[in-house]
Amino acid sequence: MNTVYADHEDRGSRHWIASACRGILRLTWHAIRLPSLTLLVLLQPVICWTLSLVGLLGVLTAFFWEFFSPRPYHRFWIVVAISVGVAMLQIPYYLLIRLFSTR
């Protein structure tokens, strides 16, 4: 008979410890999430504008050297690909904002 009560008390103490650990983890997550989200949202216009500008300037520079250079410009597609890749870095940035903004 004592084993039934001991088993019941053991489950209750495990439940309390598990709830406390979940609470500590949730508090830690919010302590990391909220300042990070604030910083990402505040820097979002500057970062996205900069990435778009660098990507656009890279593509325009590649076209400029392709059409107006007297020598053959062999790195055209490499520069275009890098420029488009830089502009597409906005996608992981928005995904990071989305990760930190959800509960």
How are the SSEs placed, and which strands pair?
Layout: H1 2-68, H2 76-87, H3 90-101
Say how many strands there are: 0
- Computed over alpha carbons, the radius of gyration is 27 Å
Strand content: under 5%
Mean pLDDT across the residues is: 87
Number of H/I helices? 3
Order of helices and strands: HHH
Oligomer: single chain
Identify the overall geometry.
rod-shaped
- Pick out the low-confidence regions: none
Label the structural class: mainly alpha
End-to-end Cα distance, whole Å, is 44 Å
Number of domains: 1
The major beta sheet can be summarized as: none
What portion of residues is helical? over 70%
Descriptive report:
With 103 residues, the chain is mostly helical. The chain has one domain. The chain contains three helices and no strands. The longest helix is centred in the middle third of the chain and has 67 residues, at 2-68.
How do you describe this structure in short?
The protein is built from three helices and no strands. It has 103 residues and is mainly α.
